[in-house]
Design brief:
Chain lengths: ~325, ~325, ~350
């Protein structure tokens, strides 16, 4: 299997407020030194809580943001420093599905226009014409192709998300980044969309990056999962390995925190209680960023930043992995 | 915070400098010859030459500008060393072409009238505007709301000169309750001052309270639908406590901001009002000066009003940061 | 009345330009002091509207509220705004989902907690502030005497939610309604907040209504569960009953469609087909019938008649609103649902 995306040393810092007149602005360390690869046809899950940098990573991969440093290699091309014009042909291959089905569709455009826009922008005329292809896409995502001329507000949240997915599929991209595609949907609809995305991935051999904070959702979609904390990847492993034998303390804590819809499960499970809040990304802790909440922290955790190393079947960044 | 203030003051000074350069430059690009304008009716070529030399109009533009700026800070001496030596104390803004008076003196003389109009009218429009806006918002959809907003719309669509002249006709000519508008110093006669200012105040307040009424109403209605107002209700607060502590507090910030800016502009001269009622304020001074192409006076009034607007902006920024903790603590 | 809260045939209708929205339709339930009720439903189920009705917050609006709500013996719908206001914050308090927008950005956290206390207690401002500090401490906020002077935007999401809880508890109410209190929070913070709520309930003996769409949260904290769909209660019972032996096809659908850490990721999730119904023109008969795989098993009953909320067996406290024949229900549950859980 070929590697379709390779990320090395990817870093993104944002400038925050200035504290004083002459001092430099504060730096928000959104993402620091990310290294990972994705193979063609794979679904990689990216999980973490707020402030971990997963959304930023998604935007960096699709070049909605420019990296502060590091390399992004997509399909053999180095895209981290390309200008918008240079990115244009590549963008047809790199698409994104957004979280909010209400704000990611232009309310003044018909559904047909929305799904046809990628063709317009890329200047591509599909075989049989734009309209035919758009209707095909609507059908693929489970919508009625006759609704070509309707407006977004005439659809429910789940249906709008399907429109967003149809739009992302239009140009047959090689990689799709789905940023929290089901978080804003009702529970009874989430399953429909997850099934749809999974079906599409299998039918069309698409490569996915699936970003979510919900560990159970990611588990149903991804084959490999990366856990992020405060801008770093702390663990990457095959799905089953990660969920059954998590090696990083944060992964363990995260898994134990997920509430199960089973009143009997509570007693038997050892819930790990993490104290305090996620630290400020403006001043991340030195060394291992998780050490302030980690029950295993030792002096070395403050002085030395752990590398992402292969331990058994997982890659873990921890001085004292499980 | 302090650093923020310093930065704003420096920026303000910079803006003022740019304004002064632009104003200064514009008049010298005009086809009219300043020396001729200064000369007046009984003009002879010798007089014009003398004026040109006195006012240093034959110097290159940057030099003239430099002398002008220097005059503002330390004063200026025309024809130094000669028997016609003229000392213009700082801040020197030159001499009026029309009346030969020092511009600074003119500005000082006209300022009280403008201040009177501005402060009197502003208190009036705030009181009327805010209270009618609050009542409208609290009684939304009722006859009171529709009526007051209708009046507001009507008032806002009437021109100041129209309103002013109608009011003058009614109160001064017909009913004879009020004297002709003008300016008497409040230190000389408080009642005369108030009676003479009444019409300009009412005229200005008429228009502006309409605007503030709509602003307040819109602001309050928006805040009323905020989640934190729902929380306040859930805590069991009385309607009065909710409306003052939470709703009004949330709506007031943009109103204060706009008020500061409106006041700043007004301090530069309520041009139309002063013109309509013939009040000797800065507004009238500047319109007369423009009509007569009295360059030094125009330059002076423009700079003066720019100064007030910049000052008002600065104060508004400070008030805004005092009112909004998110800005203050950033 | 043994229960602190009794809701009887509550209906809430909203008049809109498109028609009348029947947000809540003849809802009845009760809650005793010291116990927790989880109200579960998705958007449009009527759960939030119900909570606002309990606090009497629909009184100033154009909503049409009928039925009876007894809070500590006082009937809310027939009481005046002034009478209900005395109860708000004191007998019953509410915690909202979005702590950032639900707190006033212009006042400190301390001011807002003090305010809640001062409404119902005649004490000085400094005494109210001390109370605020002690409440912040009780909910686990470090350095409360310093943080009491902070503004909401200076707190993190989890801290802010704790502050909201502190505010709600300040007058020691007998009932707390928490409307999706952890939905906007990270899962590790959610765990802390749920833990805190359980803890506080033990100490203060408060009744808690937890409104959520998350069955996992309900399993953690609720004693009883009320499942709502299209404004009606469709199932009610203890948390073990409703989550382990659910009776309503909607509940089956929810339980089998949510991704779990324990289910097989290779199998597709059994999704509930269709979309939530319109509340202006809801489906005839049982509102769930267009999405119910078993609707045809009762002939035309599901389409024609709204089922009643009935016990699953005589004297059972487990109620379900469904036409399905009892025997068929057990069969379907065992053959269709259990394998997918």
């Amino acid at each position: 299997m070929t590697t379709i995306l390779k990320v090395s040393g990817l870093t993104k810092h944002f400038n925050g407020n200035r504290k004083g007149f002459f001092s430099k602005p504060e730096v928000v360390h959104a993402v620091d030194d990310l290294n990972f690869e994705i193979k063609a046809g794979e679904a990689l899950g990216l999980v973490g809580e707020s402030g971990c940098g997963k959304s930023t990573t998604g935007r960096l991969i699709t070049r909605l943001l420019t990296p502060t440093s590091g390399q992004i290699e997509f399909d053999g091309n180095e895209i981290s420093n390309l200008t918008n014009n240079q990115l244009k042909p590549i963008r047809t291959q790199l698409q994104m599905i957004f979280q909010d089905p209400y704000s990611s569709l232009n309310p003044r455009h018909t559904v047909g226009t929305i799904v046809a826009t990628p063709f317009k922008i890329a200047g591509i005329e599909p075989e049989g014409g734009v309209k035919k292809r758009v209707q095909e896409l609507l059908e693929i995502v489970g919508l009625n192709p006759e609704h070509y001329n309707r407006y977004p507000h005439e659809f429910s949240g789940g249906q709008r998300q399907r429109i967003g997915i149809a739009r992302a599929l239009a140009l047959r991209p090689k990689l799709i980044v789905a940023d929290e595609p089901v978080s804003a949907l009702d529970v009874s609809i989430q399953a429909q969309i997850i099934n749809l995305l999974k079906g599409l991935q299998q039918d069309f051999g698409l490569t996915f990056v699936f970003i979510a904070h919900d560990l159970a959702v990611v588990r149903h979609f991804a084959q490999r999962v990366a856990v992020m904390y405060l801008g770093n990847i702390v663990e990457i492993a095959e799905r089953d390995t990660l969920y059954s034998t998590p090696k990083h303390p944060y992964t363990k804590a995260l898994l134990s925190a997920v509430p199960e819809a089973d009143p009997d499960a509570m007693g038997s499970r050892n819930r790990i209680k993490l104290e305090g809040d996620v630290p400020n990304p403006i001043n991340p802790p030195s060394g291992c960023r998780f050490r302030t909440r980690c029950w295993k922290a030792q002096p070395i955790c403050a002085t030395s930043k752990p590398e992402l190393l292969q331990i058994g079947a997982s890659k873990v960044a921890c001085h004292f992995p499980e | 915070m302090f650093k923020y203030l310093i930065r704003r003051v420096l920026v303000g000074g910079f803006v003022l400098a740019i304004v002064s350069a632009i104003v200064f430059g514009i008049f010298y690009i005009l086809p009219a010859d300043p020396a001729r304008l200064a000369c007046g009716k009984a003009c002879t070529p010798e007089l014009m030459d003398r004026i040109r030399t006195t006012l240093e109009l034959d110097q290159p533009l940057p030099v003239q500008y430099g002398r002008f700026i220097k005059g503002i800070f330390v004063g200026r001496t025309y024809l130094p060393g000669s028997e016609a030596e003229l000392n213009c104390a700082a801040p020197c803004l030159g001499y009026s072409y029309q009346t030969d008076q020092p511009v600074t003196t003119l500005l000082k003389d006209r300022l009280p009238a403008t201040l009177s109009i501005a402060f009197g009218a502003s208190i009036l429009w705030l009181l009327i505007g805010l209270s009618s806006g609050i009542v409208s918002a609290l009684r939304r959809g009722t006859m009171i709301d529709k009526f007051s907003q209708g009046v507001a719309l009507g008032a806002a669509s009437l021109q100041i000169y129209f309103v002013g002249l109608i009011l003058q006709f009614i109160f001064v000519d017909k009913l004879q309750i009020l004297p002709m508008p003008g300016y008497t110093s409040p230190f000389d006669s408080l009642s005369e001052w108030a009676k003479q200012m009444a019409l300009p105040w009412i005229t200005l307040a008429f228009l502006l309270s309409a605007i503030y009424s709509r602003l307040t109403r819109a602001g309050m209605l928006e805040v009323m639908s905020e989640d934190y107002v729902r929380t306040a209700r859930a805590k069991g607060l009385s309607a009065r406590a909710i409306n003052t502590k939470h709703v009004l507090r949330g709506a007031i910030t943009p109103i204060v901001t706009v008020f500061g800016l409106d006041l700043g502009v007004l301090l530069g001269g309520a041009v139309i009002t002063e013109y309509v009622f013939n009040i000797p304020g800065l507004g009238k001074l500047s319109t007369d000066a423009v009509a007569n192409v009295d360059i030094p006076v125009v330059t002076g009034t423009v700079l003066f009003s720019a100064f007030f607007v910049i000052l008002a902006n600065l104060i508004v920024d400070l008030i805004y940061s005092a009112l909004d903790p998110k800005v203050r603590l950033a | 009345m043994s229960s602190f809260l009794e809701v009887k045939n509550l209906s809430v209708n909203f008049k809109t330009d498109d028609g009348v929205v029947k947000a809540v339709d003849k809802l009845s339930f009760s809650l005793e002091k010291g116990k927790s009720l989880g109200i579960v439903g998705e958007s449009g189920s009527g759960k939030s509207v119900t909570s606002l009705a309990i606090l009497g917050l629909h009184k100033a609006t154009s909503a049409d509220v009928s039925g009876e709500i007894y809070v500590g013996g006082v009937e809310i719908n027939s009481s005046s705004e002034a009478q209900v206001r005395k109860l708000r914050g004191k007998e019953m308090a509410m915690i909202f989902q979005d702590s950032l927008t639900s707190l006033n950005p212009f006042y400190t956290i301390g001011d807002q907690i003090s305010e809640a206390y001062l409404v119902h207690n005649k004490v000085s401002n400094s005494q109210a502030k001390l109370k605020a500090i002690s409440m912040l401490d009780r909910v686990g906020i470090p350095e409360p005497q310093k943080r009491v002077d902070d503004y909401p935007h200076q707190f993190s999401g989890g801290m802010r939610q704790r502050a909201m809880i502190a505010m709600a508890l300040s007058c020691n109410p007998n009932l707390i309604i928490a409307d999706e209190p952890t939905t906007a929070l990270d899962v590790t913070v959610q765990a802390q907040i749920l833990e805190l709520l359980k803890d506080l309930q033990k100490d203060f003996g408060t009744a808690i209504i937890l409104i959520t769409h998350d069955l996992g949260v309900v399993a953690e904290i609720a004693d009883d569960v009320l499942l709502m769909y299209a404004g009606k209660a469709v199932e009610y019972g203890s948390v073990r009953d409703v989550l382990k032996i659910p009776q309503h096809p909607y509940g089956w659908g929810l339980l089998t469609s949510i991704p779990r850490l324990s289910s097989d990721p290779k199998k597709p999730l059994s999704a509930i087909s269709g979309t939530p119904p319109s509340l202006i023109s809801p489906p005839s008969g049982c509102a769930f019938h267009p999405r119910c795989p078993y609707a045809s098993s009762t002939g035309s009953a599901c389409i024609e008649k709204v089922p009643d909320l009935l016990p699953i067996s005589p004297n059972s406290k487990h109620l379900v609103r469904c036409h399905m024949d009892a025997g068929l229900r057990v069969e379907n549950f065992n053959s269709q649902v259990v394998p997918r859980l």
